[in-house]
Amino acid sequence: MKSVYATELSAASEVAIETETCLDCLERIGVDELHLVTVVPVNVHGGTIGIDHEKRRRRVLRRYRNSIEDVGFDVETHVVRGTPHRRINGIAETVGADLSIVGSRGKSPLENRLIGSTTRNLARTTVVPLLVNRIERETESPDLVEKHLFERLLYATDFSANADRAFEAFSYLRHAAQEATLVHVETETSPGPDGDRAPEERLEELTDRLEEWDIDATIDVRMGDPADEILAAEATHEPTTTLVGSRGQSKFRRLLLGSVSESVVANAAGNVFLVPARRTA
Questions:
Q1: What is the pLDDT of residue 17?
Q2: Origin, by domain of life (predicted)?
């Protein structure tokens, strides 16, 4: 599997890229080729006196590359100029990536924006599964919130086609997963997906499939606002990563990312693995 790893070359990015436990998790799910991508924004001018931005970034990426190759990955580096999320998505499509990874400092009590604009735009436009790797903030020496990326998964489903697509990710995540909690949230206006089948019954079918892969699975059915309840379930079960599908479709998907998915990506305390809808013409 190929993965694009986007970095802005900060201390936070460095800890995410060079943490061996994190790299081991990626190797376990089948990633053997990493494409390190850093984007020089269009508003950063190459002619800044005394600073060669692209040369500096290539130098730092070479150091990252050497560290990751020592662990056993094939590594390519890309220093590009443009709008970050567009260039990251473009490289993911060009190299045929199976997933993209971006670090996020998460929630800041001093900001209205809960995640960076690049992370938010990637969540809205990604064409491959996106791992939002949560990093500590408000510290000079940041660390990953969870180093074991896929050890304990929280899977949120409304039994839609997009949620089913997200469940398919277990086909490779299972190689690093030990536990999974399957969450479904009923609302007052739509108490269930089928009139003749209880959510518990449908979730039990999914747990049976996971237990065939030696994943210890449990279910959690809730009532209320889906985004709020999924975040509450994360606080209760403390997964290392929350797995969700997005509702975005077609070339306009950036405008259609489900509000539930966007809220989870923005507000989750830990990592989020977002699986986009299948592309349509």
A1: 73
A2: Archaea
For 229-239, b where at least 16 C-beta lie within 10 A, e where not — what string?
A: bbbbbbeebeb
User: Can you list the positions of beta strands (E) in the chain?
Assistant: 2-6, 33-40, 74-81, 99-104, 130-134, 152-156, 179-186, 216-223, 241-245, 271-275
Separation between Cα atoms, residue 135 and residue 19, nearest integer Å: 12
Return the residue matching tokens 């210890």. 216
Task: Check residue 147 and give its pLDDT.
Answer: 77
At the fourth CATH level, which superfamily is domain 152-275? Answer: HUPs (3.40.50.620)
The torsion region of residue 90 among left (phi > 0), alpha (psi -120 to 50) and beta comes to alpha
Question: pLDDT digit string (tens) for 25-80?
Answer: 999 999 999 999 998 877 655 555 445 667 888 888 888 898 899 889 999 999 99
Residues of the chain with pLDDT under 50: 49-50, 107-115, 249-257, 281
Which CATH number describes the domain made up of 2-134?
3.40.50.620
Cβ partners under 8 Å of residue 158, min gap 6: 184, 185, 193, 226
pTM (2 decimals)? 0.86
- Indicate if 152-275 has the same CATH topology as 2-134: yes
At 40 the pLDDT is 84
Query: Collapsing DSSP states into helix, strand and coil, what is residue 222?
Result: strand
Phi first, then psi: give them for residue 63, nearest 5 degrees: -65, -45
Where along the chain do its domains lie? 2-134, 152-275
